[in-house]
Protein backbone atom coordinates (compact mmCIF):
# COMPACT_ATOMS: atom_id res chain seq x y z
CA UNK A 1 0.00 0.00 0.00
CA UNK A 2 1.36 3.42 -0.89
CA UNK A 3 1.11 6.26 1.57
CA UNK A 4 -0.86 9.41 0.92
CA UNK A 5 2.42 11.27 0.54
CA UNK A 6 3.84 8.84 -2.04
CA UNK A 7 0.55 8.77 -3.94
CA UNK A 8 0.55 12.55 -4.19
CA UNK A 9 4.16 12.43 -5.39
CA UNK A 10 3.03 10.09 -8.19
CA UNK A 11 0.37 12.59 -9.16
CA UNK A 12 2.52 15.63 -8.43
CA UNK A 13 2.87 16.49 -12.11
CA UNK A 14 -0.92 16.63 -12.31
CA UNK A 15 -1.06 18.97 -9.35
CA UNK A 16 1.56 21.18 -10.93
CA UNK A 17 -0.60 21.42 -14.01
CA UNK A 18 -3.47 22.71 -11.91
CA UNK A 19 -5.68 19.64 -12.10
CA UNK A 20 -8.26 19.47 -9.33
CA UNK A 21 -10.39 16.40 -8.64
CA UNK A 22 -13.96 17.62 -8.70
CA UNK A 23 -16.32 19.33 -11.05
CA UNK A 24 -14.53 22.68 -10.71
CA UNK A 25 -11.66 21.54 -12.71
CA UNK A 26 -8.67 23.61 -13.72
CA UNK A 27 -6.90 26.09 -11.46
CA UNK A 28 -7.43 29.54 -12.92
CA UNK A 29 -10.63 28.62 -14.77
CA UNK A 30 -13.39 31.17 -14.31
CA UNK A 31 -15.84 28.61 -12.99
CA UNK A 32 -13.44 27.39 -10.32
CA UNK A 33 -12.82 30.98 -9.32
CA UNK A 34 -16.54 31.55 -8.92
CA UNK A 35 -16.92 28.45 -6.75
CA UNK A 36 -14.05 29.37 -4.47
CA UNK A 37 -14.88 33.04 -4.02
CA UNK A 38 -18.68 32.89 -3.88
CA UNK A 39 -20.25 31.48 -0.71
CA UNK A 40 -23.26 29.22 -1.14
CA UNK A 41 -25.89 31.56 0.16
CA UNK A 42 -29.63 30.78 0.11
CA UNK A 43 -30.10 33.60 -2.38
CA UNK A 44 -28.08 31.86 -5.08
CA UNK A 45 -29.03 28.71 -6.99
CA UNK A 46 -26.11 26.38 -7.75
CA UNK A 47 -26.64 24.34 -10.91
CA UNK A 48 -23.03 24.17 -12.07
CA UNK A 49 -21.54 20.93 -10.72
CA UNK A 50 -24.06 18.09 -11.21
CA UNK A 51 -24.67 17.89 -7.48
CA UNK A 52 -27.86 16.29 -6.18
CA UNK A 53 -29.91 18.76 -4.17
CA UNK A 54 -31.83 15.87 -2.56
CA UNK A 55 -28.73 15.40 -0.42
CA UNK A 56 -27.72 12.28 1.49
CA UNK A 57 -30.48 9.86 2.50
CA UNK A 58 -31.54 10.09 6.14
CA UNK A 59 -29.84 6.77 6.91
CA UNK A 60 -26.50 8.11 5.67
CA UNK A 61 -26.84 11.31 7.69
CA UNK A 62 -27.62 9.29 10.81
CA UNK A 63 -24.60 7.07 10.19
CA UNK A 64 -22.33 10.08 9.84
CA UNK A 65 -23.67 11.71 13.00
CA UNK A 66 -23.30 8.50 15.01
CA UNK A 67 -19.74 7.94 13.84
CA UNK A 68 -18.42 11.51 13.82
CA UNK A 69 -16.70 11.09 17.19
CA UNK A 70 -14.76 8.10 15.85
CA UNK A 71 -13.03 9.99 13.05
CA UNK A 72 -9.82 10.30 15.06
CA UNK A 73 -8.90 6.84 13.70
CA UNK A 74 -8.19 5.75 10.12
CA UNK A 75 -10.27 2.58 10.61
CA UNK A 76 -8.17 0.42 8.30
CA UNK A 77 -9.77 -2.63 9.88
CA UNK A 78 -13.24 -1.63 8.64
CA UNK A 79 -12.47 -0.99 4.97
CA UNK A 80 -12.85 -4.68 4.19
CA UNK A 81 -16.43 -4.48 5.42
CA UNK A 82 -17.06 -1.64 2.97
CA UNK A 83 -15.61 -3.66 0.09
CA UNK A 84 -17.81 -6.61 1.02
CA UNK A 85 -20.91 -4.38 1.12
CA UNK A 86 -20.13 -3.01 -2.34
CA UNK A 87 -19.43 -6.51 -3.65
CA UNK A 88 -22.79 -7.77 -2.37
CA UNK A 89 -24.57 -4.78 -3.88
CA UNK A 90 -22.99 -5.31 -7.32
CA UNK A 91 -22.95 -9.12 -7.24
CA UNK A 92 -19.20 -9.44 -7.56
CA UNK A 93 -16.55 -10.77 -5.18
CA UNK A 94 -14.70 -8.50 -2.72
CA UNK A 95 -11.52 -9.26 -4.70
CA UNK A 96 -13.17 -7.45 -7.64
CA UNK A 97 -13.75 -4.21 -5.68
CA UNK A 98 -11.53 -1.16 -5.31
CA UNK A 99 -12.82 1.82 -3.32
CA UNK A 100 -11.54 5.36 -3.57
CA UNK A 101 -11.99 9.03 -2.75
CA UNK A 102 -14.97 9.44 -5.06
CA UNK A 103 -14.64 7.78 -8.45
CA UNK A 104 -11.88 10.26 -9.40
CA UNK A 105 -9.19 8.35 -7.52
CA UNK A 106 -10.21 5.11 -9.23
CA UNK A 107 -10.01 6.78 -12.64
CA UNK A 108 -6.58 8.22 -11.80
CA UNK A 109 -5.34 4.78 -10.73
CA UNK A 110 -6.47 3.27 -14.04
CA UNK A 111 -4.65 5.98 -15.97
CA UNK A 112 -1.53 5.19 -13.95
CA UNK A 113 -1.86 1.44 -14.43
CA UNK A 114 -2.97 1.08 -18.04
CA UNK A 115 -1.55 4.06 -19.96
CA UNK A 116 1.89 5.47 -20.70
CA UNK A 117 3.73 7.51 -23.34
CA UNK A 118 3.21 4.59 -25.72
CA UNK A 119 -0.06 3.17 -24.33
CA UNK A 120 -2.72 5.80 -24.97
CA UNK A 121 -5.93 6.61 -23.22
CA UNK A 122 -8.46 6.55 -26.06
CA UNK A 123 -11.72 8.40 -25.60
CA UNK A 124 -14.32 10.62 -27.26
CA UNK A 125 -14.74 14.37 -27.08
CA UNK A 126 -16.26 16.13 -25.32
CA UNK A 127 -16.29 13.94 -22.24
CA UNK A 128 -15.26 14.23 -18.60
CA UNK A 129 -12.30 16.40 -19.47
CA UNK A 130 -10.62 16.34 -16.08
CA UNK A 131 -9.32 12.85 -16.83
CA UNK A 132 -8.02 13.95 -20.24
CA UNK A 133 -6.19 16.85 -18.58
CA UNK A 134 -4.86 14.51 -15.91
CA UNK A 135 -3.56 11.95 -18.39
CA UNK A 136 -1.75 14.62 -20.39
CA UNK A 137 -0.33 16.21 -17.25
CA UNK A 138 1.06 12.80 -16.25
CA UNK A 139 2.78 12.49 -19.63
CA UNK A 140 0.40 9.85 -20.99
CA UNK A 141 -0.58 9.57 -24.63
CA UNK A 142 -4.19 10.61 -25.33
CA UNK A 143 -6.31 9.97 -28.43
CA UNK A 144 -9.63 11.82 -28.74
CA UNK A 145 -12.33 11.10 -31.31
CA UNK A 146 -15.44 13.29 -31.69
CA UNK A 147 -18.73 11.99 -30.27
CA UNK A 148 -21.26 10.96 -32.90
CA UNK A 149 -24.20 13.38 -33.26
CA UNK A 150 -27.17 13.51 -33.21
CA UNK A 151 -27.14 10.77 -30.55
CA UNK A 152 -23.80 12.07 -29.17
CA UNK A 153 -22.72 8.51 -28.49
CA UNK A 154 -19.20 7.10 -28.37
CA UNK A 155 -17.96 5.94 -31.81
CA UNK A 156 -17.09 2.44 -30.60
CA UNK A 157 -15.69 1.15 -33.89
CA UNK A 158 -13.28 4.06 -34.16
CA UNK A 159 -12.23 3.56 -30.55
CA UNK A 160 -11.39 -0.06 -31.31
CA UNK A 161 -9.47 0.91 -34.46
CA UNK A 162 -7.34 3.35 -32.49
CA UNK A 163 -6.69 0.68 -29.84
CA UNK A 164 -5.60 -1.74 -32.56
CA UNK A 165 -3.19 0.86 -33.96
CA UNK A 166 -1.67 1.40 -30.54
CA UNK A 167 -1.56 -2.30 -29.75
CA UNK A 168 -2.41 -1.63 -26.09
CA UNK A 169 -3.79 1.01 -23.76
CA UNK A 170 -7.12 2.01 -22.21
CA UNK A 171 -10.44 3.05 -23.74
CA UNK A 172 -12.38 5.46 -21.51
CA UNK A 173 -16.16 5.60 -21.95
CA UNK A 174 -18.46 7.70 -19.76
CA UNK A 175 -22.04 6.38 -19.82
CA UNK A 176 -24.16 8.49 -19.53
CA UNK A 177 -21.60 10.92 -20.83
CA UNK A 178 -20.56 14.07 -19.02
CA UNK A 179 -21.17 16.80 -20.26
CA UNK A 180 -23.72 15.77 -22.92
CA UNK A 181 -25.94 13.50 -20.79
CA UNK A 182 -26.15 11.18 -23.79
CA UNK A 183 -25.78 7.41 -23.66
CA UNK A 184 -23.91 4.83 -25.67
CA UNK A 185 -26.34 2.02 -26.44
CA UNK A 186 -26.33 -1.41 -24.84
CA UNK A 187 -25.60 -2.90 -28.26
CA UNK A 188 -22.62 -0.62 -28.88
CA UNK A 189 -21.09 -1.34 -25.48
CA UNK A 190 -21.59 -5.08 -26.05
CA UNK A 191 -19.86 -4.79 -29.45
CA UNK A 192 -17.01 -2.83 -27.90
CA UNK A 193 -16.42 -5.48 -25.23
CA UNK A 194 -16.63 -8.29 -27.78
CA UNK A 195 -14.10 -6.58 -30.06
CA UNK A 196 -11.74 -5.21 -27.44
CA UNK A 197 -8.17 -5.72 -28.70
CA UNK A 198 -5.68 -7.71 -26.66
CA UNK A 199 -3.78 -5.74 -24.00
CA UNK A 200 -6.50 -3.06 -24.03
CA UNK A 201 -8.64 -2.27 -21.00
CA UNK A 202 -12.11 -0.76 -21.29
CA UNK A 203 -12.84 1.72 -18.49
CA UNK A 204 -16.54 2.57 -18.13
CA UNK A 205 -17.36 5.58 -15.93
CA UNK A 206 -20.90 5.11 -14.58
CA UNK A 207 -21.09 8.12 -12.27
CA UNK A 208 -24.53 9.00 -13.67
CA UNK A 209 -25.84 5.54 -14.57
CA UNK A 210 -28.44 5.43 -11.81
CA UNK A 211 -30.21 8.47 -13.30
CA UNK A 212 -30.68 6.75 -16.68
CA UNK A 213 -33.72 4.83 -17.87
CA UNK A 214 -32.90 1.13 -17.22
CA UNK A 215 -34.71 0.26 -20.45
CA UNK A 216 -32.12 2.26 -22.43
CA UNK A 217 -28.82 1.54 -20.71
CA UNK A 218 -27.33 -1.14 -18.47
CA UNK A 219 -24.31 -1.37 -16.24
CA UNK A 220 -21.08 -2.72 -17.69
CA UNK A 221 -20.46 -4.50 -14.37
CA UNK A 222 -22.05 -7.52 -16.06
CA UNK A 223 -18.79 -7.80 -18.05
CA UNK A 224 -16.75 -7.72 -14.85
CA UNK A 225 -18.75 -10.76 -13.70
CA UNK A 226 -17.79 -12.40 -17.01
CA UNK A 227 -14.06 -11.73 -16.38
CA UNK A 228 -13.68 -9.36 -19.33
CA UNK A 229 -10.95 -6.70 -19.47
CA UNK A 230 -13.37 -4.10 -18.16
CA UNK A 231 -13.14 -1.69 -15.22
CA UNK A 232 -16.33 0.05 -14.05
CA UNK A 233 -16.48 2.92 -11.61
CA UNK A 234 -19.34 4.40 -9.60
CA UNK A 235 -19.67 7.15 -7.03
CA UNK A 236 -21.83 8.04 -4.03
CA UNK A 237 -21.59 11.71 -5.10
CA UNK A 238 -24.48 11.77 -7.58
CA UNK A 239 -27.61 9.66 -7.10
CA UNK A 240 -26.89 9.34 -3.36
CA UNK A 241 -26.33 13.10 -3.00
CA UNK A 242 -23.02 12.84 -1.13
CA UNK A 243 -20.56 14.83 -3.25
CA UNK A 244 -18.86 16.22 -0.13
CA UNK A 245 -18.48 12.79 1.46
CA UNK A 246 -15.94 11.63 -1.18
CA UNK A 247 -16.66 7.93 -1.58
CA UNK A 248 -16.61 5.86 -4.75
CA UNK A 249 -15.55 2.48 -6.03
CA UNK A 250 -14.44 0.45 -9.02
CA UNK A 251 -15.15 -3.13 -10.03
CA UNK A 252 -12.82 -5.26 -12.18
CA UNK A 253 -11.06 -8.60 -12.47
CA UNK A 254 -8.64 -9.24 -9.56
CA UNK A 255 -5.59 -8.91 -11.83
CA UNK A 256 -6.78 -5.48 -13.02
CA UNK A 257 -7.47 -4.48 -9.41
CA UNK A 258 -3.91 -5.55 -8.51
CA UNK A 259 -2.51 -3.41 -11.33
CA UNK A 260 -4.42 -0.35 -10.09
CA UNK A 261 -3.73 -0.83 -6.38
CA UNK A 262 -0.22 0.69 -6.35
CA UNK A 263 -1.74 3.97 -7.50
CA UNK A 264 -4.39 3.98 -4.74
CA UNK A 265 -4.08 5.40 -1.24
CA UNK A 266 -6.50 2.72 0.06
CA UNK A 267 -7.80 5.13 2.68
CA UNK A 268 -11.02 7.10 2.31
CA UNK A 269 -12.93 9.31 4.77
CA UNK A 270 -14.40 7.13 7.51
CA UNK A 271 -17.70 8.97 7.40
CA UNK A 272 -17.82 8.16 3.68
CA UNK A 273 -17.50 4.47 4.52
CA UNK A 274 -20.33 4.59 7.05
CA UNK A 275 -22.57 6.82 4.92
CA UNK A 276 -21.99 4.67 1.84
CA UNK A 277 -22.80 1.44 3.65
CA UNK A 278 -25.99 2.93 5.08
CA UNK A 279 -27.08 4.21 1.67
CA UNK A 280 -26.50 0.82 0.05
CA UNK A 281 -28.97 -0.69 2.49
CA UNK A 282 -31.79 1.27 0.87
CA UNK A 283 -30.48 1.19 -2.70
CA UNK A 284 -33.42 -0.86 -4.03
CA UNK A 285 -35.95 1.84 -3.11
CA UNK A 286 -33.84 5.01 -3.00
CA UNK A 287 -32.32 4.79 -6.48
CA UNK A 288 -35.62 4.22 -8.38
CA UNK A 289 -37.31 6.99 -6.44
CA UNK A 290 -34.55 9.51 -7.08
CA UNK A 291 -34.31 8.45 -10.72
CA UNK A 292 -38.04 9.05 -11.12
CA UNK A 293 -37.92 12.46 -9.42
CA UNK A 294 -34.95 13.58 -11.52
CA UNK A 295 -36.60 12.37 -14.74
CA UNK A 296 -39.80 14.24 -13.92
CA UNK A 297 -38.01 17.55 -13.27
CA UNK A 298 -35.77 17.05 -16.31
CA UNK A 299 -38.79 16.34 -18.53
CA UNK A 300 -40.54 19.46 -17.28
CA UNK A 301 -37.47 21.51 -18.18
CA UNK A 302 -37.25 19.94 -21.64
CA UNK A 303 -40.92 20.65 -22.30
CA UNK A 304 -40.36 24.27 -21.29
CA UNK A 305 -37.33 24.50 -23.60
CA UNK A 306 -39.40 23.01 -26.44
CA UNK A 307 -42.15 25.57 -25.85
CA UNK A 308 -39.59 28.36 -26.05
CA UNK A 309 -37.93 26.82 -29.13
CA UNK A 310 -34.58 26.37 -27.38
CA UNK A 311 -32.41 23.48 -28.63
CA UNK A 312 -30.81 20.98 -26.24
CA UNK A 313 -29.24 17.53 -26.18
CA UNK A 314 -31.66 14.92 -24.77
CA UNK A 315 -30.22 13.71 -21.49
CA UNK A 316 -30.28 10.57 -19.36
CA UNK A 317 -28.37 12.19 -16.49
CA UNK A 318 -29.01 14.82 -13.80
CA UNK A 319 -27.93 17.62 -16.12
CA UNK A 320 -28.66 18.85 -19.62
CA UNK A 321 -26.75 20.70 -22.35
CA UNK A 322 -28.64 23.69 -23.80
CA UNK A 323 -27.69 25.63 -26.92
CA UNK A 324 -27.64 29.29 -25.93
CA UNK A 325 -26.40 30.41 -29.39
CA UNK A 326 -23.59 32.49 -27.97
CA UNK A 327 -20.38 32.12 -26.01
CA UNK A 328 -21.05 30.12 -22.84
CA UNK A 329 -18.68 32.21 -20.71
CA UNK A 330 -20.63 35.37 -21.46
CA UNK A 331 -23.96 33.63 -20.89
CA UNK A 332 -22.82 32.01 -17.62
CA UNK A 333 -21.59 35.33 -16.26
CA UNK A 334 -24.95 36.93 -17.02
CA UNK A 335 -26.78 34.04 -15.33
CA UNK A 336 -24.57 34.40 -12.28
CA UNK A 337 -25.50 38.07 -12.02
CA UNK A 338 -29.13 36.90 -12.01
CA UNK A 339 -28.41 34.64 -9.03
CA UNK A 340 -28.04 31.30 -10.83
CA UNK A 341 -24.68 29.51 -11.22
CA UNK A 342 -24.52 27.27 -14.30
CA UNK A 343 -21.86 25.10 -15.93
CA UNK A 344 -18.50 26.03 -17.38
CA UNK A 345 -17.53 25.72 -21.06
CA UNK A 346 -16.89 22.31 -22.60
CA UNK A 347 -15.00 22.90 -25.87
CA UNK A 348 -15.65 22.41 -28.69
CA UNK A 349 -19.33 22.85 -27.70
CA UNK A 350 -18.72 26.50 -26.92
CA UNK A 351 -22.35 27.57 -27.25
CA UNK A 352 -23.74 24.68 -25.20
CA UNK A 353 -24.52 25.38 -21.55
CA UNK A 354 -24.50 22.49 -19.07
CA UNK A 355 -27.17 22.89 -16.38
CA UNK A 356 -27.69 20.62 -13.38
CA UNK A 357 -31.23 19.39 -12.71
CA UNK A 358 -32.02 20.83 -9.28
CA UNK A 359 -35.16 20.95 -7.18
CA UNK A 360 -38.44 22.23 -8.60
CA UNK A 361 -37.79 25.58 -6.90
CA UNK A 362 -34.24 25.68 -8.30
CA UNK A 363 -35.50 25.08 -11.81
CA UNK A 364 -38.15 27.77 -11.50
CA UNK A 365 -35.40 30.25 -10.59
CA UNK A 366 -33.34 28.94 -13.50
CA UNK A 367 -36.18 29.40 -16.02
CA UNK A 368 -36.76 32.98 -14.92
CA UNK A 369 -33.08 33.89 -15.16
CA UNK A 370 -32.51 31.92 -18.37
CA UNK A 371 -35.38 33.56 -20.25
CA UNK A 372 -34.16 36.99 -19.24
CA UNK A 373 -30.57 36.33 -20.34
CA UNK A 374 -31.47 34.32 -23.44
CA UNK A 375 -33.82 37.04 -24.67
CA UNK A 376 -31.40 39.90 -24.04
What are the salient characteristics of this protein?
Aspartate Aminotransferase, domain 1, 15 helices, Aspartate Aminotransferase, domain 2, three-stranded antiparallel sheet, globular, 2 domains, 376 residues, seven-stranded mixed sheet, alpha/beta
Description of the molecule:
- By secondary structure, the protein is of the alpha/beta class.
- The chain folds into two domains: 4-55 and 284-375, Aspartate Aminotransferase, domain 1 (Alpha-Beta Complex); 58-282, 3-Layer(aba) Sandwich (Aspartate Aminotransferase, domain 2).
- Helix content is 42%, strand content 14%.
- It has 15 helices and twelve strands.
- The protein has helices spanning 4-10, 12-16, 30-37, 58-67, 79-90, 104-114, 129-137, 156-166, 186-194, 221-225, 254-260, 270-281, 283-307, 328-337, 360-375; strands at residues 45-46, 97-100, 121-125, 142-146, 169-174, 200-205, 230-235, 248-251, 312-313, 319-323, 340-341, 352-356.
- The strands form three sheets. Strands 2-8-7-6-5-3-4 form a seven-stranded mixed β-sheet, sandwiched between helices. A three-stranded antiparallel β-sheet has the order 9-10-12. A two-stranded parallel ribbon has the order 1-11.
- Helix 10 (221-225) links the parallel strand 6 (200-205) and strand 7.
- The radius of gyration is 20 Å and the shape is globular.
Tell how many strands the DSSP assignment holds. Answer: 12
What's the CATH C level of the largest domain? Alpha Beta
Radius of gyration: 20 Å
Largest β-sheet summary = 7 strands, mixed
CATH homologous superfamily (4th level) name of the largest domain: Type I PLP-dependent aspartate aminotransferase-like (Major domain)
Amino acid sequence: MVTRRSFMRQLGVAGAAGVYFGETLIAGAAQADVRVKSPKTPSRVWLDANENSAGPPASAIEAMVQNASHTWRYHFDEFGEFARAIAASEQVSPAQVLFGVGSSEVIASAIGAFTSESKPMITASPTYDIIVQLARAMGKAVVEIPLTPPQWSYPVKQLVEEAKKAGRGMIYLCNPNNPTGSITSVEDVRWLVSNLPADTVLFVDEAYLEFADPAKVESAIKYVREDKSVVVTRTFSKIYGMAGVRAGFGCARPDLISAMNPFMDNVIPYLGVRAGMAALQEKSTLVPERRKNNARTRTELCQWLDQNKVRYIPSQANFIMIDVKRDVREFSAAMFREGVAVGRPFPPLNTMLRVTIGSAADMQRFRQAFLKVYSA
